[in-house]
Fold:
Amino acid sequence: MDLEIGQIVDGYRITGVLGRGGMGVVYKAEDTALSRDVALKVILANLTRDDQFIRRFQTEARTLAQVDSPYIVRVHALRETDAGWFIVMEYVEGGTVANLLEESEQGMDVDDALPIIRQMFQAFDHAHGAGIIHRDIKPENVMLTKSRQVKIADFGLAKQSSPDTLATVTQGMMGTLYYMSPEQVRGLGEVDHRSDLWALGVVMYEMLTGRRPFKATYEAAVLYSILNEEPDPITAVDGDIPEDLQTIIFRLLEKDQDARFQNAGEVLEALDGLGGAPRGA
Structure:
């Protein structure tokens, strides 16, 4: 059963609905003790009977709580109440990269895109440094404040990369199809942080061109394209995009994990080499 506007749950007053998905509902709420807005991610009632899912939900909260980054949505608390399980998260007032792409069919200007791109890689430099792999990066999960500060959201498919950690529950191929790496498509066991780098490359390509690099219209063709085809050159779509920036994106989209950048820090160094505003601390 959905929570009602005005209902108070464990000290949080529900003020709105931010989104719905297959796993739950995200509400905007007021922390009545601290008088601040928060986001509550509440799992669906039918899933509370699934012990594996509950462990996955708990893992998401603990995963996010481990990462202290200004570019990742912060977790404030994990609660089990009569209303069910929910995570209390930072509320981000703004939009997403997906919203920006809806406003510009031809993609974003390079000067507008690069600050967001740098912050995306700073976020994953922090997350991967803590041993956290996201595995579901897409424009909808790159949130933006009103000042366009990046806040990476929805680590629902995240896992820790340490071998002694309980793996996240897997149901088929996880991640949104167009942003999945070749190793995810194959269902291989060696999916690591470099799959996140691939997905970030896909998002970069889409930000700058307004189109996805692997754009077939049905599932089997998308999978084939990811595994076997090369994207169209970005400079053919927009001649104003620097060749060096295209080189960075295409290296992120190498089919072979070992041929890609090996970590987000390497990508940040390459981006710094383009000039413009340097990366933050």
Q: What stands out?
A: Confidence is low (pLDDT under 50) at residues 160-175. The longest strand covers residues 12-20. The chain has two domains: 8-90, 94-272.
